[in-house]
Every structure is written in structure tokens, then in C-alpha cells.
Amino acid sequence: MKYPIYIIPALALALLFSACASFDEGKPQAVVIVSFPAEASVYIDGNATGITPLTVNLPRKLSHEIRLEKEGYNPAVKYFTPVPNDKSQNFIRFGLSQDLGYYHDLEPSVMEAKMKSELVPNSTGADPFERMGQQTLKADRQLQAGEITPLEHKYIIEQILEFFE
């Protein structure tokens, strides 16, 4: 099969430009993002990406900010950062491997975020027992209205009790 002469340089340029992006950012690494409660919205570097649990491929030479949001919970922000891996200790390193980020891995490889319920107060107030009872009743009402699952209810009550201990 014969290609017109202009196709070969165009393909070479396309490969070169796609390789340049990989050199700057590094080869992607699969990372897992999970949250409790599940089904939190995931924003990676400010861009809406999906819903937890989620597996994404992130360039390994860059740091990434992960923001989780779910109604009724305070947002959780965590980071994936590049750290040298075992291959970085090699006496001989190859330039292309280094350019593609093979000597770095993103840490952590699995991000687990336990989101704090908005029902957990910031201060105990004048009467901590009354405040604890109020917050517990709000969680009970959310459960009865079907706004949260029994597992989320248990998690919220545990957070409230832990706060007032």
C-alpha cells in the first residue's frame, strides 16, 4: 500500500507531539479513589472526573489535587504526589525512561477518604449533651426521610459520639 508523501511527515509530527506531552507529565499510573460514604463527586485538579469508587490514570511526574464532595458532608481534599520508586536507585538510568517518569510513582496508589458529616459540630457549645442530642436527632430524621442509608447513619452517629467524647 502506497501512502502520499505528505502522510509520513504528518504522522511523525503527530507522534512527536504526543510524546512531548508524555515527557512533561510522565507515563500515566492507575490510581484508585474511594470514599466513605461512596458516590462522592471527584474533582481532579479542579476538573469533574467521576463518582467514587473510581480508578483513573494520572501522569506520574505531576502532583494532583483530589477533591471529594457529597451533599451533607464536608469536602475532603487529598493529594497524589510523585515519589522516587525502587528503580530510581539504579546506578544506570535511561533517559527515555526518566523522561516518561518510570523512576517515580504516585503516592498513595489508593486514596481512601472518610468524609466528615456536616452534622458533626465545630464546637461543643454551652450544653454539650443537648447539642449531641440535637445532632443525633437530625441524623435520625435524615435516615427516616431516606436521605441517608443505615450505614451512613451509623457512620454519622459514630462521628458525633467521637466528637463529644
Count of alpha/pi helices: 4
Strand content: 25-35%
| Count of distinct structural domains | 2
Termini Cα gap: 77 Å
Q: Mean pLDDT, as a whole number? A: 80
Shape: elongated
* Poorly predicted segments: 15-23
- Helix amount: 25-40%
What are the defining features of this structure?
4 helices; alpha+beta; 5-stranded antiparallel beta sheet; single chain
Describe the structure.
By secondary structure, the protein is an alpha+beta fold. The chain has 2 domains: 21-114, no CATH class; 128-164, no CATH class. It has helices at 7-25, 95-99, 128-144, 150-164, and strands spanning 28-36, 41-44, 47-51, 54-59, 64-69, 76-84, 104-107, 110-114. The strands form 2 sheets. It has a 5-stranded antiparallel β-sheet with strand order 3-2-5-6-7, with no helix packed on it. Strands 4-1-8 form a 3-stranded mixed β-sheet, with no helix packed on it. A hairpin with a 6-residue loop joins strand 5 and strand 6. Helix 3 runs antiparallel to helix 4.
In short:
With 165 residues, the chain is α+β, with helices and mostly antiparallel strands.
